[in-house]
Specification:
This protein is globular. It is 6% helix and 36% strand. The protein is mainly beta and 594 residues long. It has a single domain, classed as Quinoprotein alcohol dehydrogenase-like superfamily (Methanol Dehydrogenase, Chain A, 8 Propeller). Strand 3 and strand 4 form a beta hairpin. The strands form 10 sheets. It has a 6-stranded antiparallel β-sheet with strand order 11-12-13-14-15-16, with no helix packed on it. The protein has a 5-stranded mixed β-sheet with strand order 1-34-35-36-37, with no helix packed on it. Bound molecules: calcium ion (CA) (2 copies). One calcium ion binds next to loops.
């Protein structure tokens, strides 16, 4: 374990001073390199990537803020995103060289002096009429590379700005927004390339992962995540060559629906340098009505592992074969290592899927190692067979086929848990190598769901389903839960009235930080779940906190602003939490010195 000691801090301070002396001017921000990004999880003076390191553990070794000192945590500054419109703020800030880069709703990005909160520049993307974000006008964050800060927009563009001036350096189109493409995830950087997916699974888009040269935006490779579609590689002049179709045409998609097959890669990706693999989650097969598309429908509702050098799918694991509930498999696949019973180190990855099961896969080859429920009620499968890797389905848990009814208009309604908003959704979990536990922001909710006939029309919702989301319990929906991934044992839980929609941070100070829709940023004991501190931020929190150190002090930051998918899609649950107010700010905290 890396401890944050005073001598080490002094070494860092001296190293920084030396770096500034070489550069000549502290005002001139230094470029972010591939080595910096690979070291991000260990370098405590910056937060360079979504997930606090490309593996996505959201763990910081910092210890100054800990179970004893956290009671002295106080705000340093707060800055409002302003504007006439607010809505959901799901962004994770990135921080380098004393500057914070933070995205906000409606495709905005701000650069701030991280010591004072002073605004250095902002960029507000001009959005056209007719954009089709399914699940609020949110953005989850930016990536840093070289002198650039790179983020995606709701009209499906990828934009690189000079991080010192805010001037646009390059701009590339990710998809046709009129066909339902949009972009909300934080891009990641792998070996000089910016890695992105696409949003739009509710409109019959084709999911895919792209790699572009991070400095120029020029495409390097693209890999569709729907069976039957062609992948391409690009040379420096932009000439493309075929690199083979994904999977085998019609092997798991009968008929023609694969042509508008969804599997949108809308929640970003993680990268593990040890195995040299990008892990991307894929969304629902389109449309939701599963009776229209017999088969497993690869590579929907899966984890796909890609070679960053050429975009080849090295392995895949399908969390929900033949998804009929919109259990998008987009949730983050977080690399971690553990010792098995024979004492051998296992290179694994964990994923708390929307479908209610927590999956542990061998991250070198995708083999399923463990799967256990992380929510109390699951109606679509009894369990996951660890031998075959496939679910033991409960057949009556699948919404019925409208074609089987006399009028053909509405299939049998089923009660389903989790709801399609998931046992966990976009809110990122954290893993602590210190405790060996995953901290999962889970929700207990259900839905009535039924199927309807539907046909594809460009730019129109492509569901073929209706639904109402409902709470299961009167006293809580959300529950932050600590799990041992090797045993599936829940070590503790902390319940919350509203559904949890904000990500988690864990630290070497034996703490877990997360926010609630009720507006509290909370710190819990990582081993017991006991609440040690909370702060009311004035609007709901649906974003993940971060931490770093600066001038020998540890800081915490979180973006606030209630919104996201719950108020838009939440049915009875949306009504239950309609007392929550919108906002839009970023907060920074440190320990009060008495
Ligand atoms: Ca770092
Ligand atoms: Ca979906």
């Amino acid at each position: 374990m890396i401890r944050n000691t005073f001598p080490k801090r002094n070494v860092v301070a001296i190293a920084l001073a030396a770096a500034f002396a070489v550069a000549g001017s502290p005002a001139m921000a230094k470029d972010v390199t591939d080595a910096d990004i690979l070291n991000d999880a260990k370098s405590t003076g910056d937060v360079l990537s979504y997930g606090l390191g490309t593996q996505g553990q959201r763990y910081s070794p910092l210890t100054a803020i800990n179970a004893d000192t956290v009671k002295n945590l106080v705000p340093v500054w707060s800055m409002s995103f302003g504007g006439e419109k607010q809505r959901g703020q799901e962004s994770q800030p990135v921080i380098a060289d004393g500057k914070m880069f933070v995205t906000a709703s409606y495709s905005r990005i701000f650069a701030l002096d991280v010591k004072t909160g002073k605004k250095l520049w902002k960029y507000e993307h001009r959005l056209p009429d007719g954009i089709m974000p399914c699940c609020d006008v949110i953005n989850r964050g930016a990536a840093l590379y070289g002198n650039l800060v790179i983020f995606g927009t709701l009209d499906a563009q990828l934009i690189a700005l000079d991080k010192d001036t805010g001037k646009v350096v390059w701009k590339e189109k990710l998809g046709d927004y009129a066909a339902g493409y949009s972009y909300t995830a934080a891009p990641i950087i792998v070996k000089g390339k910016v890695i992105t997916g696409v949003s739009g699974g509710e409109f019959g888009v084709i999911g895919r992962m792209d790699a572009r040269d991070a400095m120029t935006g020029k495409m390097v490779w693209t890999r569709p995540t729907v069976e039957g579609h062609m992948g391409y590689a690009f040379d420096k002049d932009g000439n493309k060559t075929e690199t083979g179709i994904s999977g085998t045409l019609n092997a798991s998609w009968k008929g023609d629906l694969w042509q508008t097959g969804g599997a949108a890669t809308w929640n970003g990706a993680t990268y593990d340098a040890e195995t040299n693999l990008i892990f991307a989650g894929t969304g629902n097969p389109a449309p939701w009505n599963s009776h229209l598309r017999p088969g497993d429908n690869l590579f929907s509702s899966s984890t796909v592992a890609l070679n960053p050098d050429n975009g080849k799918i090295v392995w895949h694991y399908q969390n929900t074969p033949h998804d009929g509930w919109d259990f998008d498999g987009v949730n983050e696949f977080v690399s971690f290592d553990y010792k098995d019973k024979s004492g051998k180190m296992v290179k694994a990855g964990g994923k708390a899927d929307r479908n209610g099961f927590f999956f542990v896969n061998d991250r070198t080859n995708g083999k399923l190692l463990n799967a256990f429920p992380f929510v109390n009620k699951i109606t679509w499968a009894k369990s996951i067979n660890l031998e075959t890797g496939r679910p033991n389905y409960i057949e009556e848990g699948r919404p019925g086929n409208p074609a089987a009814e006399a009028d053909g208009k509405k299939g049998k309604v089923v009660f389903s848990a989790p709801s399609f908003l998931g046992g966990k959704n976009q809110q990122q979990m954290a893993y602590s190598p210190q405790t060996g536990l995953f901290y999962v922001p889970a929700n207990e909710w259900s839905m009535d769901i039924w199927n309807e006939p539907v046909s594809y029309k460009k730019g129109a919702a492509y569901l073929g389903a209706g639904f109402t989301i409902k709470a299961i319990h009167d006293d809580y929906i959300g529950s932050l839960r600590a799990f041992d991934p090797t045993t599936g044992k829940m070590v503790w839980e902390s319940k919350n009235y509203a559904p949890l929609w904000g990500g988690v941070l864990t630290t070497g100070g034996n703490l877990v930080f997360h926010g609630t829709p009720e507006g509290y940023l909370r710190a819990l004991d990582a081993k017991t779940g006991k609440e040690l501190w909370k702060f009311q931020a004035g609007t709901g929190i649906v974003a993940p906190p971060v931490t770093w150190e600066m001038d020998g002090e540890q800081y915490i930051s979180v973006v606030t602003g209630w919104g996201g998918a719950v108020p838009l899609w939440g049915g009875d649950v949306a009504k239950r939490v309609n007392f929550l107010e919108q906002g839009g700010s970023v907060w920074v905290f440190k320990l009060h010195k008495s």
